[in-house]
Records
---
Amino acid sequence: MEQMTFYDATNYEVINNCKDNMMDTTWRDIKKEAKLVSLPDVYLRIKNILDDPDYAMAEVALAISQDPAITLRLLRIVNSSFYGFASKIETVSRAITMLGTQQVHDLVLATSVAQAFKGMSTDIMDMQRFWRRSVYCAVASRQLAVLCGNCDKERVFVAGLLHDIGHLIMYRALPGLSQQIILMAREDSKPLYMVERAFLGFDYAWTGAELMQEWSIPESLRETTMFHVEPEKADKAPLETAIVHLGALLTRADDGEGVFNEGPLTVEPIAWTVTGLSPDDCTSLSEQFEEETGEVMSLIFPQEYGG
């Protein structure tokens, strides 16, 4: 019964105290795989700079500029219609001035995560489909954040992009079992995370949060990843977590897993309360989600997927 204590937890201190009690062979495999995945050096340099309270923006700009691929993708993104700046931004320094260091950090993080899993075999997972789903969730979450107001829509975008990252680790460590669980969840019309817990003792949301902890990702992003399946348990970022909860369910509906807000894709009531949104608010933007997903795919994955 101690395993369930972990899922009733609402803070990381309780979670960490319960982790050892839920460890078994599969979880050790997951942790081992997570330790093998590292983010590109450029992101680590930027994070180290930003962790220093006396950092200078020029240091951030220099660290990014030393990686031509990241620089190109960052400038493509900030000059796209996604941001809609009136004039062209030609330098990293200007991008930082316009966006701020947090948004630049998050955009570099997004492209860095994509690079970290670039070599993953398509025999294990359809990576194009996976990233399209992730981008769809990011785009949907960002647009829902705009409707909510009083919310950092760019951070919510990255939170949506990363919400399913745990499945990449699970497919690398436990490919056959992970696939079987997905099929069982669909056949039984049950939420995937519940079936994963029943068979493994953990789910993809916790796996993603574990990976992000290995990477020292900001806590607010870890919380949205861990609790987007149960938004009522979010403590530090309840609005952002509720938005990503909606975005994730919209994504699954778009990918043919069911009807939004019905059956296993039913929205948790707390999400409507926290966001103030309605089902119509979510579904009325579906065409916009589709259009922006294609654009963002070409920005973050310009070579991989023909952008």
---
Amino acid sequence: MNLTQIALLLFVFIACSVNEELEMQDEILWHNYGVLHIYARSDSSLYYMADGRK
């Protein structure tokens, strides 16, 4: 493998890892039938969002 291929491979790995970190956000979604879905990065975020007294 030459230096250009290694640099390109390293760039791809870094870009993929950064995208995964940005992808996860705290959010509350409701299904069409009113079912609540809570997505949180941590337990404390989950409890804060589920409490409803923000």
---
Amino acid sequence: MSDPRYDRLAELVLDHSLRLQPGEVLRIEADAVAEPLVVPLHREAIKRGAHAYAALDLSGLTELLVAHGAEEQIGFVSPIALREMDAIDASITIWSETNTRSFSRADTDRRQRQLAAQRQLALRRRDRIARGEHRWCGTLCPTEAHAQDAEMSLEDYEAFVFGACHVLDDDPVAHWTGVGEQMQARADELAAVRELRIVGEDTDLTVVVRGRTWRPAYGRKNVPDGEVYTSPVESGINGTIRFGFPAVFGGREVDDARLRLEEGRVVAAEAAGGEDYLRSLLELDDGASGVGEIAFGLNYEIDRFTRNILFDEKIGGTMHLALGMGFEDLGGLNRSALHLDLICDLRREGEVYADGELVWRNGHFLQDPQPARPAERV
């Protein structure tokens, strides 16, 4: 028996996130465990006149490659996949796993080389998105593994996911359009800021954002959504910052990371758990120790940590900083195979100053944004 919540999520992604049109080529990429969402996405895309196809993976195949592949196999990127990325109009990535810790014991260096190679596809897609040639959205299909990470039953986790996506609202598209208007107003205010100072537990970090574009996130590229973000000036990040939430990346976890940055580069890094892994990520390439993103998490309906960055980076009252790849269309210049989001919890002890003026305390802006233009159509 099908679950209508998956149907509603499929409709939201196709109509709001991708604005799918007749005749467009749509790629649906997921693990086979995401079948409950893949099927309605495929069905609804066909109803809209698109040319849809599913690219399904099987759990465990990449682990086999990292464990047993020769060096040239680990670094191989299919030329067919690269050409495919240039030929499609839109794509959906469904994050769904049966084992979110599958690489916990993998050789760190081999795993990093495999990730760096595959990031070529992500960079190709990001460049096409920046040029307006491609539309992409990432969302999640609930699984037992994700529910376990969030310390919930599958039933409770499904309710959490679909509630955060607002698929049971009378008009989900109208909800996210309204979120876009609020986020755009905040982005417009932040556009005038030259420098942010973030103060919290073991945190005192200045971030230069002068001249950079702030973007509202309201369901275009992620579902659920709810953040305002930019790429900071690459040489303008200085100080220390502590990330109280663990970061899960590439099937491994980094717990309680602490960084010291000078002129935009990480010069010291430690973590209570996964410190060696964190340092290996920072050495992935020349841009990995730089900063590509700074963002305010503003979705207060996401109020718990779930060990899934799709939700955790939007937790209302947090900020996150991403090491590695920046956003070129926002002014970011840092290029890297890495984009590692790290979350700083400012809800109990945190302040943010904009050009010396206190604008945020304990997880909330002190003033509501002024009404602004409609959210940008990206």
